[in-house]
Design a protein that fits this description.
The complex is a heterodimer of chains A (about 500) and B (about 300). With about 500 residues, chain A is an alpha+beta fold. Chain A is built from 15 helices and 19 strands. In chain A, strand 8 and strand 9 form a beta hairpin. Chain A is globular and about 75 Å long. By secondary structure, chain B is mainly alpha-helical. Chain B has 13 helices and no strands. The relative contact order of chain B is 0.14. Classes of the chains: A alpha+beta (about 500), B mainly alpha (about 300). Chains A and B meet through helix 1, helix 6 and helix 12 of A and helix 5 and helix 7 of B.
Chain lengths: ~500, ~300
C-alpha cells in the first residue's frame, strides 16, 4: 500500500466517524421491505420436532408451522384451534370434533387419523412432550372428523392437553418421522423455506392456511443470546422485534424515531420461598413479618425502572382461577418488628438467603435491597449467590436453609403453582413442610369437575397461602420487547410470539 | 531437514497429549462430573449407578487412557444441553470461526506489513507516528469495546454494515476488523523494530555497495530476514485470535465456536466445553507446527542447526 493510499484510507475512516451524528435516524436506510420481518429471540432452536420442543423460544418458532387442537393466545384467551368443539361424554371420555378443510403443507387433508398417529408419536418413550399429555390414555378415531379421547382419571387439565396435542401428518409419521426435525410439515400459518442452522430460520406465509391469511409474508428468526447484540441489530434496522430488552436500554430505544418498546406484566413471578420446615420460618408470625418488612413498590420503582407489578398470591392476575380479592402485604416495618417480638425474636435473627445471578431482571440488586430492608427490622441475612443451573439444582433437592429467591411461571391454571411449589407431594413442595390444609384443598380441586366449585376451592387456597405467608410475595417482572415502530404487534404476557396476527405498516 | 521435521512432529504430538491431559483434568478439578450430568431429581443411588456405568469409579490414569482412545476416535461425549455429540457441534460451528479468524488474520497482515515497513523506512515521519498511535490503540483497547464502537458508528449511525449475525453480505467486515486489530498492531510493531535492526546490518550495506536497486535490497535482503520474527508473532497471535473469538463472536452474535464455548460455560455443559477447548487447542498446536516448517523455508540456518 502506498503512503497516499494509506492516508486516503485513514482520512475516509475519520471522515465517516465525524459525520456520523449528523445522519442519526435519517441515514441511508435500506429500501422499504415488503412485509418481511426479522425476529431475534435469545436462543437458537434445536429442532422443529414438536415431540422434542423445549423452552418458549422453540415453541414460538414451531407454533408458526404446527397447530394444536386448541390454543392459548398471547392474551391468555382459550381458543378452539384444529378442534372446533369438545364435550365430556362420561367423567373419563370426551368427544372432539375436528375442523373441516384443513390442509397440511404437503397438500394432505387433516383427518382423525393424523391426530391418532400424532398422539402416538408425542407420547412415545423418548418424547419430551409426553409429560404434557400424561392425563390421556387413548385417542381413537370415530370418523374422519371425530375423535374419542379417554383420560386416565377425571381430567381437569383437558384443555391444556388439547393445546399440547400438536397435529402432524400421519403419512410422514408412518414413513419418516425423523424428517420433521428439519423439514417440518404442519397445518400452521407459515411454511419453512430455509434453515441455516445457527444463523437463521426463514418462513413464508402459507397461502392455504385454514385461518385468516397472515399479513406478514416472510419471517426470519434468529437466536441471539447477547442482549447488547440484539439491541444493536434493532437499532441498525437489521431486526424488527427483539426479546428481553434490559432496563438500561429502554430509554435509548424509546427515544429513537423508528423504534418503540412494548412491555407487559409477565407470568414470571419473583418470590422468596421460606424453609418453613424449621425455625425461624416454622412460625407463621415470622413469615408474615418478613412480608411486611419488604417494600415491593420501592424495588419496582427504583430497581426495575417501574416495570413490574406487586404480587399478592402465587398465581398471576390473569391466570384462570386467580383470586383477585387477596391483597398484597403492605410495607409496614413497625408491624414486622411487632410480629417478630411476638414470635420471640425481639432482637431479630440471622438467616441464609440464597439467590441466583443474572437469571431474572436485576436479581442481584433486588436481593441486596431486600437484605437492607430486612436488616432494618433486625433480620440479618447471609447472602449466597449462585450460577443459576447449579443454584436451582441444589434448591430443587430441598437442601437450602433459610430463604431462596425463585421465579415461578404460571399460565394454565392457578393450581399449577400449588402443584409444583406448595403441595407436599408436589415437585418442590418440601419447603412448606407439609401443610395438611393445603394438601386437602389441593386434592379436592384436583378431582372437582364442577368449575364453579373448583374456582371456590382455589380461591380459598390462595387466600390461605397468603395468610400463612409461605412465601414472601414480591412482584411479577415485566417482559420488555423492542420493536420497529411500523410493526403492529402487542407484547404477550405468556412469552408467546404469534406473528400471523401481526402487520407491518409500509 | 528430515530430522528437524520429525523432531517438531514429536513435540507437536507431545503438546497434543498435554492438551488432552489438561482438558481431562479440568473435568476432575471442578468437582464431580457425574453430578453435572444427572437431573435435579436424581438420588444418591442413581448417581452411584451412573458413576459405575460411565466408569468414573476407576483409577484416574485408566480413565484418562479411555478418554484418549475415545478422543482419537473422535468421540468426545455428548453435549448435556443439545443431546448431540459434542464434537459434531464444534465441527458444525467451525466454518464460521475459520472464516472469521482467517479474515481477521488477513486484514491484520495486509495492513500491518506495509505499515510496519513504511514506518521503519521512514522513521520519524507522520506515517511512522500514525502507525505507532494505531498500534498502541489497537493493543490497549479491549475487543468488546472496539466492537461496540464499530457497531455504533458503522451499523447504527451510518447504516453501512450489518451490526450482527452471519450470512448477509458484508456481515464479516466488522467482526473481522475487531478481531484483527490486536494482531495487526502487534505485527506492525514487531516488523518495524526488526526492520530497523536489519536495515543497519553489514550485509545490507554491502548489498547497497554492490549497486543493487533499493527494491531488490528491500525484498531479498531486508524483508527476508525481518520477516522471521513476524512469522513467530503471527503464529502466537493466531492463538490469541482463536481465544478472541469468544468475545468477538459474542459481541457480533457470530455463530462460531467461541460463542458455543461461552454458551457451554453458561450452561455448565461440560462435555461441550471440553470439546471446544480440545479442538481449539489442537488447531493452535497444528498451526504452530506448520509455521515451524515455514521457518525452515524462510531461514535456512534453522535447517543446519
Amino acid at each position: 500500500m502506498t503512503r497516499r493510499a494509506l492516508a486516503t484510507l485513514v482520512a475516509t475512516i475519520f471522515a465517516l466517524s465525524v459525520c456520523a451524528p449528523a445522519s442519526t435516524g435519517g441515514g441511508p436506510q435500506s429500501s422499504p421491505k415488503p412485509k418481511e420481518i426479522t425476529v431475534l429471540q435469545s436462543a437458537d432452536i434445536k429442532t422443529f420436532d414438536p415431540s422434542m420442543a423445549f423452552g418458549s423460544h422453540e415453541l414460538n418458532v414451531q407454533a408458526h408451522v404446527f397447530d394444536g387442537l386448541a390454543a392459548i393466545d398471547p392474551e391468555l384467551n382459550q381458543k378452539e384451534w384444529l378442534a372446533t368443539s369438545w364435550k365430556m361424554l362420561t367423567t373419563t371420555t370426551w368427544e372432539v370434533k375436528l375442523r373441516e378443510n384443513v390442509k397440511f403443507h404437503n397438500g394432505d387433508t387433516m383427518t382423525a387419523d393424523d391426530v391418532v398417529e400424532s398422539f402416538k408419536y408425542l407420547t412415545r418413550e423418548e418424547a419430551s412432550a409426553r409429560a404434557n399429555l400424561q392425563g390421556w390414555a387413548t385417542v381413537e378415531k370415530v370418523d374422519d372428523k371425530t375423535l374419542k379421547i379417554t383420560t386416565k382419571a377425571p381430567d381437569i387439565r383437558f384443555f391444556g392437553e388439547l393445546t399440547s396435542m400438536i397435529v402432524m401428518p400421519a403419512r410422514v409419521l408412518r414413513s419418516n418421522p425423523a424428517s420433521l426435525a428439519d423439514k417440518p410439515i404442519g397445518t400452521g400459518p407459515y411454511t419453512l423455506t430455509e434453515w441455516a442452522k445457527g444463523e437463521r430460520i426463514v418462513m413464508a406465509a402459507n397461502s392455504n392456511y385454514w385461518g385468516a391469511k397472515p399479513k406478514i409474508t416472510k419471517v426470519t428468526w434468529k437466536g441471539v443470546p447477547e442482549a447488547s447484540a440484539r439491541i444493536a441489530a434493532l437499532q441498525a434496522g437489521q431486526a424488527d422485534l427483539v426479546v428481553n430488552v434490559p432496563p438500561e436500554s429502554v430509554t435509548v430505544l424509546s427515544s429513537s424515531a423508528n423504534l418503540r418498546v412494548d412491555s407487559v406484566h409477565s407470568l414470571r413471578n419473583i418470590t422468596l420461598i421460606f424453609d418453613a420446615r424449621v425455625a425461624p420460618f416454622k412460625d407463621v408470625r415470622v413469615r408474615q413479618a418478613l412480608n411486611y418488612a419488604i417494600d415491593k413498590e420501592s424495588i419496582i420503582r427504583n430497581i426495575l425502572g417501574g416495570r413490574g407489578a406487586v404480587q399478592a398470591t402465587p398465581s398471576y392476575e390473569r391466570t384462570p382461577n386467580h383470586n383477585a380479592s387477596v391483597k398484597p402485604y403492605p410495607y409496614d416495618p413497625e408491624k414486622a418488628k411487632q410480629l417478630l417480638r411476638d414470635a420471640g425474636y425481639p432482637n431479630g435473627f440471622e438467616v441464609e438467603f440464597h439467590h441466583p445471578t443474572g437469571r431474572w431482571i436485576k436479581d442481584v440488586e433486588v436481593t441486596q435491597a431486600i437484605a437492607g430492608m430486612l436488616e432494618k427490622v433486625g433480620v440479618k441475612t447471609k447472602l449466597s449467590t449462585g450460577e443459576y443451573t447449579a443454584f436451582f439444582n441444589t434448591w430443587a433437592t430441598g437442601a437450602y436453609k433459610g430463604m431462596t429467591m425463585i421465579g415461578t411461571l404460571n399460565q394454565y391454571d392457578a393450581d399449577q403453582v400449588f402443584q409444583l411449589f406448595l403441595y407436599s407431594k408436589g415437585r418442590w413442595g418440601m419447603y412448606v413442610g407439609a401443610d395438611p390444609k393445603i394438601d386437602q384443598l389441593y386434592e379436592a380441586q384436583n378431582t372437582e369437575l364442577d368449575a364453579a366449585k373448583r374456582k371456590q376451592i382455589l380461591a380459598e387456597m390462595e387466600q390461605y397461602v397468603s395468610d400463612q405467608a409461605y412465601w414472601a410475595f414480591l412482584y411479577f417482572q415485566d417482559d420488555v420487547f423492542g420493536l420497529n415502530k411500523k410493526l403492529k404487534w402487542r407484547a404477550p404476557s405468556n412469552e408467546k410470539i404469534w406473528l400471523w396476527e401481526a402487520d407491518l405498516e409500509s | 531437514m528430515i530430522r528437524f521435521v520429525v523432531r517438531r512432529l514429536l513435540v507437536t504430538i507431545l503438546m497434543l497429549f498435554l492438551v488432552a491431559l489438561t482438558v481431562f483434568m479440568l473435568g476432575h478439578l471442578t468437582g464431580d462430573p457425574v453430578r453435572l450430568m444427572v437431573p435435579d431429581t436424581a438420588t444418591e443411588e442413581d448417581i452411584a449407578t451412573l458413576r459405575q456405568t460411565l466408569g468414573l469409579d476407576r483409577p484416574l490414569p485408566i480413565q484418562f487412557g479411555d478418554f484418549l482412545i475415545h478422543a482419537v476416535q473422535g468421540d468426545l461425549g455428548s453435549s448435556l444441553r443439545y443431546r448431540q455429540p459434542a464434537l459434531t457441534l464444534v465441527i458444525e460451528r467451525m466454518p464460521a470461526t475459520a472464516e472469521l479468524s482467517l479474515a481477521a488474520m488477513l486484514i491484520a497482515l495486509v495492513v500491518a506489513i506495509p505499515a510496519g515497513l513504511i514506518s521503519a523506512r521512514k522513521r520519524g515521519s507522520w506515517a511512522d507516528a500514525l502507525t505507532s498511535v494505531i498500534s498502541v490503540v489497537g493493543q490497549s483497547m479491549p475487543a468488546f469495546w472496539i466492537g461496540i464502537m464499530l457497531i455504533i458508528i458503522f451499523a447504527v449511525q451510518l447504516r453501512l454494515l450489518p451490526a450482527t449475525g452471519r450470512g448477509e453480505t458484508f456481515s464479516l467486515v466488522l467482526p473481522a476488523i475487531t478481531l484483527g486489530l490486536w494482531p495487526m498492531a502487534r505485527i506492525a510493531r514487531v516488523l518495524r523494530s526488526s526492520m530497523l535492526e536489519v536495515m543497519h546490518e553489514d550485509y545490507v550495506r554491502t548489498a547497497y555497495a554492490k549497486g543493487l536497486a533499493d527494491k531488490t535490497v528491500l525484498v531479498r535482503h531486508q524483508m527476508r530476514n525481518a520477516l522471521i520474527p513476524v512469522v513467530t508473532v503471527t503464529a502466537l497471535t493466531f492463538g490469541s485470535i482463536l481465544g478472541g473469538t469468544v468475545i468477538t463472536e459474542s459481541v457480533f452474535a457470530w455463530p462460531g465456536v467461541g460463542r458455543l464455548a461461552l454458551e457451554a460455560i453458561y450452561n455448565r455443559d461440560f462435555p461441550l466445553m471440553q470439546a471446544t477447548v480440545l479442538v481449539v487447542a489442537s488447531i493452535f498446536v497444528v498451526i504452530n507446527f506448520i509455521l515451524d516448517l515455514l521457518y525452515v523455508w524462510l531461514d535456512p540456518r534453522i535447517r543446519l542447526r
